[in-house]
Every structure is written in C-alpha cells, then in structure tokens.
Predict the 3D structure of the following.
Amino acid sequence: MSIELISIHKSYDHQIILKDFSLTLPDKGIVCLQGPSGSGKTTLLRLLAGLDAPDSGEIKGLPVSKAGAHGPKIAMVFQEDRLLPSFSARRNIAIVSKEADPDQLMERLGILDAADKPVHALSGGMQRRVALARAMAYGADIYLLDEPFKGLDPATKKRVMDQFIPLGERALVIVVTHDAAEADYLGGTTIELAGPPLHRK
C-alpha cells in the first residue's frame, strides 16, 4: 500500500514549513529526498513518523497510532544519534529487538570491536553506526533516515550504504541527504525539494 500525503499544511511559531504539500511514496524501495538545509525535509520525516501531526491535510497509508491500532513498524534515525550514552554499543542495539543479533549487525558495519564500550566513549562516526545498526535491528517496514551517513569517511560510508540497499527490497527506505553522490549510489528514486514552504523542484 502506497503512502499519500494530500494537501499537507504544517507551521511552527507562525512559520509555514509545508503548504498544500502532496506526495505519493511507494510501499517499498529507496527514496532519497534532496534539498537545502531548512527547507522542511526533517519536518516531513517527523510527520511520516507520527511524531508531529499536520495542521491540515491527510496522510493515507500511515494510520495515526491509537490503542489497538496496528500500523507499519517505523524506524527513524535522527540527525542526532539519540543513543543511551552509558550503555554499551551492543546494549543500545539489543534494546529494540530480542530477535536481532547485535554482534552480526556490528560486524557488518565495522564496529564489532566497540561492542562492549559505552557509546559516550566512541567517536562520532562509530556512534552513528550504532544508531544505524539499532534501526536495522528493529526490523521496520519503513526506515526514515535523516542525513544518516554524516561523519563517515568514504570507505565506511560505502560499507554502511551497502547494508541499507537490500532493505529496499522488502521495506520503504527514505533517506534525506544533501549529497547527490549518496543518492546516486543508493539508487531508487530521488526527489528534489526546495523551500520553505517545502515543495518539489
């Protein structure tokens, strides 16, 4: 089932971020959203995640979470890693799923050596990979990734992107990026955006 945003309006403190914004997204595959900083891309992700509600308009295919409602599983990686700093890398990943193998995920992302270290002792790039491994461990239907590869050197970035590309075969992976080379490497569909208010170029 596709996701439809229909005539979405959203503003904060009297600043209009989205105005009459409409977009259709597939139920799976990789979609890269490109646009300048401050254009409204993060707000769009927050609306899709259900963290914010539109002032008006409708989002179809993403039912609002209510007691007893069962919508798609959504994993979001924010621009900030939002880890539990005193927990080990392994525990940060394991906390979202009893089925996933944290060590396997860390090995795939090149951070297995850091498994037992508290994340506050890790470099920014390693913390980023812990956050991404945690999202993968959750096993979502929709991945919302906000500048997910920032702070990674080129070789590490390629290694990490290679882990997310196959997810598009069974899930919807939405990636906000300023880097055209990242979008090209990930493949899928690229949507060029501008704003605010957010709109397609």
Remarks:
- The two ends are 26 Å apart (CA to CA).
